[in-house]
Known about the structure:
Radius of gyration: 19 Å
Shape: globular
Number of strands: 20
Number of helices: 1
Largest sheet: 4 strands, antiparallel
CATH superfamily: Glycosyl hydrolase domain, family 43
Distance between the termini: 32 Å
CATH architecture: 5 Propeller
Number of domains: 1
Low-confidence stretches: 2-51
Amino acid sequence: MNGRLCDGKGKGGKRLSNFEYGGWLVGSAHCITMKPLPLFFALALVSQLSASNPIITDVCTADPAALVHDGTVYLYTGHDEAEPEKPGYVMDDWLCFSSTDMVNWKPEGSILSLEAFPWAKANAWAAHTIERDGKFFWYVSVWRGEGLGFAVGVASADSPTGPFSDPLGGPLVSSDMTPNPINPEGREVTWDDIDPAAFIDDDGQAYLFWGNTNLYWAKLKDNMIELDGEIHQIELPRFVEAPWVHKKGELYYLTYAWGFPERTAYATSKSIEGPWEYRGLIKELAGNSNTNHQAIIEFKGRDYFIYHNGGLLSGGSWRRSVCIDYLYYNEDGTIRKIVPTIEGVSSADEPLER
C-alpha cells in the first residue's frame, strides 16, 4: 500500500467536497477558471475523459480487490482523499463498485470505514474481500496508534455490499504477532502487517497472506475470523507488499509488489503452502504512482488484471485510480507481460478479440 515511504504518518488532511479533475469539479455545477491549455495538454484531457482507464474518474480509488458473486463483479477499493500536490495518504474509508460487464460500474458507496473498528486510529489501507458459505469477510489494513503499529482487521456481512461489522472487536493480526523487519534502507518496518489477501483452496481450507518487507501466511479457521496455527514466512526476491493469490488450472500464483518504486512480480507453486518458484516481472511501474497493487480474477471466460495508477490529471502517488486490462497465460502456465492501456477492456458480454 505505501511501499517504504510511510509508517503511519501523513494522516488527516482537508477533505474535498468534489473530486478535482483537470480543474473541473466533477459533480459540481461550477468549474475553476483555467488558462488555455497547450494543444498537447488539451488532447491529453480529451483522451483521459474518453478513455476506459482509469475506470472511475469522479473519485480517487486505490489498492483494488475484486470478488465474483452471482454473475456480478464487486470491486473493493481504498479511497484516496489527499489534496493535489500534497504528500501523504489520507484514507478513512473503503469504497465498493459493482459491474456485470467489467465496463459499466455502479457505485455502491462507502460501505466500510475506520469507524467500524473502534480500536483503529487511522489509515484505511489495502483490503481484500472473500465469500464463504454465504457470508462475506473483508480483511483490512489499519493503524492502531503510536507504539502499536499496523494491524489486519476483519469485518463480516451477509451481503457483498454490507452492512459490515467487526466480529472480533480487535485485530486479527497485530504487530506483536510478527517480527518487525529491517528494510533495505536499514529502517525498522512497523507497518509489516498490512495488505491482507485471503484465499480458499479446493479442499475448503482458507488462508491469509499479508505483509510489507516480510511476506506472511497462515491458515484461517472455518469461521474466517481466527488464525489456525502458526504464522509462516515466504522468501521472494524484492518483496515489498501487495500479495495476491489465485489458482489457474493446477498452478497457484502469488503476485506481489516488487522493489520500489513498485513493479509487479509473481511466483508459482503446485501447492498453496509452497515451495514457490519466482517467475519474474509481469508489469512495470504504474503511471505516475510509486505503488502498485493488483487483483486478478476470471469472469465470463476472461482473465483480468486490476491495478491502480496515478493517471487522472490531478492524480499521483497519493491520489490513485483503478484500471483494468486483460491478463493472458502462455501454454506452459506462465503469465504474459501485462500491457497497460488507455482503452481498458471491452464488455465481458461481447466476443473477445485476441
